[in-house]
Amino acid sequence: MDQVTLDFTHSKGNISRYLYGHFAEHIGGVFYDGLWVGQASPIANILGFRQSLAESFRKLNPPVLRWPGGCYAETYDWRDGIGPRHERPTRVNWWYSHDKRLESNQVGTHEFMDFCRITGAEPYIAANMTSVTPLHIRNWIEYCNFGIGTTLSDERARNGSPEPFNVRFWGIGNENWGGGGQMTAEDCAKAYLRYSTVCDSLDKGNIKFIMCGANGHDVAWTRRLLQEYASRKGNEVRAWGMSVHYYCGTAGSPTAFTRDEWYKQMRQAYYMRRVLDDHRAAMDEFDPERGIKLVVDEWGCWHKDGSGPSRGYNLYEQQSSMRDAVVAALTLNLFNDRCDFVEMANVAQLCNNLHSLYLAGGEHFVETPNYHVFSMFKTHQDARHIPVVVSTDVFEGEGQPLPLLSASASLKNGKITITIANLDMDAARMIRLAGIGGGVSGQAEVTVLAHDDPRAHNSFENPEMVMPITVSRILAEGDILEAPPASVVSIVLCPQQNG
Fold this sequence. Notes:
This protein is of the alpha/beta class and about 500 residues long.
């Protein structure tokens, strides 16, 4: 018997809504024709964006959307994506050597802002620190954020947006340890200080700069980056956040994996806790007051591509099964429980790519199991964190021991949300809920995402193969909940009032 115990006597604070962020890069079929179909398309659209997808995305209360890259940002010129669409240049983008597809620039700054307004997401722009000057980024900020009266803001008005976009989140650089310039950590810190200093005076106090952090568990990069950054206290522009990217590597086929590959993937996902904790410990050496937030700019499962509906045409497109859904739930639980120092996370990516919430093409559109996890977890956004103690079995096997149950909890508007991931591919887990300093009884909405086959996924041919089921029930103290094998469970509870 497993037990999930909620400790109401203390909290790590609020769970930032930005932990439920998203990422959309100009790569493969993410935009063309995933998110974007064009205003002249016979496919129902809102300002050129696929209507069914936009409406679905809005239901998640998406807090933030990162754009335009990723690696794509490292050769992107924002001026290519403004003005009349029929006059915009066609470019060879970052990913051309992989798929020989050109960039039409039909989606640029204004279109991205349209999508954010349609869906309710706050824009986060990942700016190019690799192949342009600091002035280039500064001009982009002025174009986006300055009121009427400058040449650039007047140009924005002529292009259809007299009101400023007021973009607060700006990433300065992307993966500068790799494709973003092959920089050392010290060079990256110096470049960040140079670029952010030039940009800071334009919209001082409003912009939140995010500097490029490490690849995966490269804690040495973080330590060297922040040592160089902290050594210039008299001149530095304070970073709001430092990014980290972490992907679960390939563990067999996305839809035909073995039992061993299931647990390999779970271990990779569970390793996120080490990534977060060890980077924060290194950051604390130079930022003991924790003024710099940890931002997981990119995360998810990275499988071999070609399993999606485009059959390899869309670069890195992959199917997402119940295995990916459980990884998503486990990861979000880890973020929730570290809400005191992880402020933002953006799953990669939104459509037709890695760990996507959607697959789309032509008239077809489908929500993946990952989408349903985000829907089940959305009530955690801006809720008060409740610490959770999980008592469960441990899978030994090869590698680090893996707890077979993951959970997190929060309180908002008088309702308790408990989210559980059953990492056990082989058996259901019988779970007793308990409370310290509070009760876990009352009226509950219990949602279960599961399938008899953990390899199950949603396709154009069968878009509802994996769907959540919600039931209403009364939970009493000591009641037992069943989490099916390889499943995700959410409980939204109105606690019973004593007296």
